[in-house]
């Protein structure tokens, strides 16, 4: 069991405002990865 030494800094909770981009980024990542792979494939392999 850990002992509370009382010397930890108090960090107030941050504002929990979530931007639209942070919500959409995980959903858009596969699309961006596929588009990047397609462009690289066309450039280097002539697909």
Write the topology of this structure.
Layout: H1 20-45
Keywords: Membrane, Transmembrane, Transmembrane helix
Transmembrane segments: 20-41
Q: Can you tag this structure with a few keywords?
A:
mainly alpha; 1 helix; 47 residues
How does this structure look, described?
The chain crosses the membrane at residues 20-41. The chain is built from 1 helix and no strands. The chain has one helix at residues 20-45. It is mainly alpha-helical. The chain has a domain at 19-47. The mean pLDDT is 81.
Structural class: mainly alpha
Could you state the order of secondary-structure elements as H and E? H
The major sheet is characterized as:
none
Residue share in helix? 55-70%
Mean pLDDT: 81
Instruction: Count up the helices.
Output: 1
- Amino-to-carboxy terminus distance: 60 Å
β-sheet strand percentage: under 5%
**Low-confidence parts lasting 5 or more residues at pLDDT below 50?**
none
Query: Nearest-angstrom radius of gyration?
Result: 22 Å
Shape: elongated
Counting DSSP E segments of at least 2 residues, the number of strands comes to 0
Keywords: Membrane, Transmembrane, Transmembrane helix
Task: Please sum up the structure shown.
The chain is an all-alpha fold and 47 residues long.
